[in-house]
Amino acid sequence: MITYLLKIKGDKRNMASTVLEDIKYYQLEIKSTSKFNSLLTEFLNQNKINLVSYNIQYELLIDTNIYETVDVSQIIKLKCEPNRDNMVDLIINDLFLDFRNLFFVDASVKEFVKVGASVFSPNLDLSLIFKLPDGLPVYYGEAYAIL
C-alpha cells in the first residue's frame, strides 16, 4: 500500500491522488482528514524519509503537423509485408537510393524521468544528442528529435 501511495502522491494528474487530501465540508464546518495521508506520513517519519517534489515546467516548441514534413509511406509497406525480417534493410537501402540524406531519430525516458533525444545521419556524419527537460513524455522526445 505504501508503494502505491507514494506513486499517487508523486502524480497529481492521477485521480487516485485525491485520497491523500483532506476534505472540507464547509456547510457542516468540519474537516475530514485522509487516513491514507496519515498512514503515509507516519511511514515517512518512522523511516526518516523526506520527499522532494519537483515542479517540472516546459513549453511545447512543436507547432507543426508531422505528416506535412515527414515521409511515413514506408511504414505502410512494412505493415503489409508478411516477411518482415529483411524488409527493414530493403526499405533503408531503397531510401538511400531515393534520398541524398537520411535522418534516424530516437528518444528515451530513463529512471527519475530523465529525457533524451538523438539524431543520426550517416551521409552528413551527423550525430546529435539532446538532454531535454525532466518529466517530458517519450512522445515529446521523439517529436523533438524529428523537429
Low-confidence stretches at least 5 residues in length (pLDDT < 50)? none
Helix content: 25-40%
Structural class: alpha+beta
Task: Assess the beta-strand content as a share of residues.
Answer: 15-25%
Q: Number of domains in the coordinates? A: 2
Mean pLDDT: 81
How would you name the oligomeric state of the polypeptide chains in this document? single chain
Order of helices and strands: HEEHHHHEEEH
The largest sheet is:
3 strands, antiparallel
Number of helices: 6
Largest sheet: spatial strand order: 3-4-5
Supply Rg. 24 Å
Overall, the morphology is: elongated
Number of strands: 5
Measured distance between first and last alpha carbons: 42 Å
Structure overview:
By secondary structure, the protein is α+β, with helices and mostly antiparallel strands. It has two domains: 2-46, no CATH class; 66-146, no CATH class. 36% of the residues lie in helices and 19% in strands. It has six helices and five strands; from the N terminus they run αββααααβββα. The strands form two sheets. A three-stranded antiparallel β-sheet has the order 3-4-5, with helices on one face. The radius of gyration is 24 Å and the shape is elongated. It starts with a helix and ends with a helix. The model has no long low-confidence stretch (mean pLDDT 81).
